[in-house]
Design a protein that fits this description.
With about 150 residues, this protein is of the alpha/beta class. The chain folds into two domains: about 80 residues, 2-Layer Sandwich (Histidine-containing Protein, Chain: A), CATH 3.30.1340; about 60 residues, 2-Layer Sandwich (Histidine-containing Protein, Chain: A). About 40% of the residues lie in helices and about 30% in strands. It has five helices and six strands. The strands form two sheets. It has a three-stranded mixed sheet. Strands 4-5-6 form a three-stranded mixed sheet. β1 and β2 form a beta hairpin. It is rod-shaped and about 75 Å long. The model has no long low-confidence stretch (mean pLDDT about 85).
Length: about 150
């Protein structure tokens, strides 16, 4: 009986020592990751690589995952990466009001009035249908948070 237990322990030890250790796997993983982006942290446990970190831009994760799985001993990859999302630039109310009022001095926009509050532009009054899209597009380029179109179309 003792011989069987001893033999089993020897076989288990041999099997455990046959595959690469997590530390060695993680070192190879770091080498691959450096080719894709900075800011990626990797941990390896029992051959499973877990990626974490916040990236400035998206990377081709499928390609990275394929490269990591090609490393001897990697059994799987867990993606806990996030991509930074830049907050949109919203033009301040005073500057936005001034620029839109300058735009509204054009004859074709004479019937349009504007109010700006917290980055939201509200258009009231009347406009010719053919001029509406040009007005909305021009105001959009000024980067308001939102455009509320309450215009009556002639």
């Amino acid at each position: 009986m003792k011989a069987k237990i001893f033999a089993f322990a020897v076989i288990a030890a041999i099997m455990a020592s046959c595959g690469p250790k997590d530390a060695a796997i993680n070192k190879a993983v770091q080498g691959v990751i450096e080719q894709y982006a900075t800011g990626i942290n990797a941990t390896t446990e029992k051959g499973v690589v877990t990626l974490a970190g916040e990236l400035d831009k998206e990377i081709n994760f499928d390609e990275l995952e394929t490269a990591l799985k090609a490393i001897k001993g990697v059994k799987g990859v867990v993606n806990n990466l996030t991509v930074k999302v830049e907050e949109p630039v919203i033009t301040p109310d005073d500057a936005l009001t001034l620029k839109i009022n300058e735009l509204l001095t054009i004859d074709k926009y004479k019937g349009v009035a504007v109010t700006v509050l917290d980055g939201e532009v509200t258009l009231t009054g009347t406009i010719v249908r053919a001029d509406l899209m040009g007005l909305i597009q021009t105001i959009s380029e000024l980067q308001p948070k939102k455009i509320n179109n309450n215009l009556n179309i002639k």
